[in-house]
Recover the amino acids of this structure.
């Protein structure tokens, strides 16, 4: 069902593995605005060697958060592009209070209003999802050994590229990422409430992506 994207920044908020990436891709087709994934942007810069040094790469591999200054600058550069003028889907940002303040200031300056969607998923489900996740390095499509198998084992359905198990999907790294989320990012829910931004909590533990998408669309419409 269509949802108006007029001057709206949708912030998908939730722990690693909560489904933000999948839902962001569904929402871009519906809202006709771009998905902004800081994780994808950082991984691309690591892959190409663009503006990311070895220390930043090591930080990502350990599951820790990259500095606010770097991420804020990278996001601001992306949001300055013309396709973001009418709105965007923010996937994986903000993750700290400084980043949230930066985003709120940017949106206020550019006449956009944030709508925050918090995807709530059980901890043990997150671990199972991420350790079984496989990723196509060419097109970015995600698969899962439990819930979404490729048609041919180990190969992307779309382009035949061999699937990879990302370093940040190792269990030890996942647990560190979840702890970083709990410690630094979860408190942002209260920040968004204090700022008067519409905030909706959606249970993402059991529903298939299509049903979860409908719930998110309903929340955005009500905002």
């Amino acid at each position: 069902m269509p949802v108006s994207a007029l001057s709206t920044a949708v912030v998908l908020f939730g722990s690693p593995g909560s489904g933000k990436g999948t839902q962001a891709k569904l929402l871009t087709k519906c809202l006709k605005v771009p998905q902004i994934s800081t994780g994808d942007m950082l991984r691309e810069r690591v892959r190409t060697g663009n503006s990311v040094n070895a220390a930043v790469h090591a930080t990502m591999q350990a599951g820790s958060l990259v500095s606010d200054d770097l991420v804020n600058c990278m996001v601001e550069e992306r949001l300055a592009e013309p396709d973001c003028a009418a709105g965007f889907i923010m996937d994986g940002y903000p993750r700290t209070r400084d980043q949230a303040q930066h985003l709120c200031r940017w949106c206020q300056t550019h006449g956009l209003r944030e709508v925050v969607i918090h995807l709530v998923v059980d901890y043990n489900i997150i671990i199972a999802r991420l350790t079984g996740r496989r990723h196509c390095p060419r097109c970015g499509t995600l698969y899962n050994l439990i819930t979404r198998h490729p048609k041919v084992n180990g190969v992307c359905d779309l382009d035949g590229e061999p699937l990879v198990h990302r370093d940040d999907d190792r269990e030890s790294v996942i647990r560190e990422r979840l702890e970083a989320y709990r410690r630094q990012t979860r408190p942002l829910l209260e920040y968004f409430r204090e700022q008067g931004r519409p905030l909706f909590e959606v249970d993402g533990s059991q529903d298939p992506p299509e049903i979860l998408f409908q719930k998110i669309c309903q929340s955005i419409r009500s905002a």
